[in-house]
Amino acid sequence: MKGSLLIKCWGAGQSNQLAGEFSVNLDLGYKVEKGEIVGRLKNTMVAGNIFEAFKRLGDFGDRPEWVGGGSYVPSLLFQELGVAARKS
Fold first, then answer.
1. Mean pLDDT by groups of 10 residues along the chain of 88 residues
2. Backbone conformation region of residue 50, classed left if phi is above 0, alpha if psi is from -120 to 50, else beta
3. 86: exposed, middle or buried (C-beta count within 10 Å: 0-12, 13-18, 19+)?
4. Where are the alpha helices (DSSP H) in 7-63?
């Protein structure tokens, strides 16, 4: 399994919430390969459409947490999101 573990994002306020479009910069994230964390993500942005993302929701956790002071949600596993990174 290959993917990204997103811990903390910033900049979601610039998204088009009515259309479900979002793009956020990662403040803290990790690269995952074969189920193991193999590195930290830097200069990375995640973008997509939240309605489409939830159609591809793979799983969710059993312990919700407060996120950004306004949402009480569990961890979410999306099968596919757009990721863009700048090489440093």
1. 83 78 89 93 89 94 88 91 79
2. alpha
3. exposed
4. 50-55
Q: 41: burial class by Cβ within 10 Å (0-12, 13-18, 19+)?
A: buried
Give the sign of the dihedral formed by CA 43, CA 19, CA 60, CA 34.
Answer: negative
Round to the nearest angstrom and report the end-to-end CA distance of the chain.
24
Tokens found for residue 82: 């757009």
Question: What is this structure's pTM?
Answer: 0.74
Residues facing residue 26 across a β-bridge? 9
Distance CA 28, CA 57 (A): 21
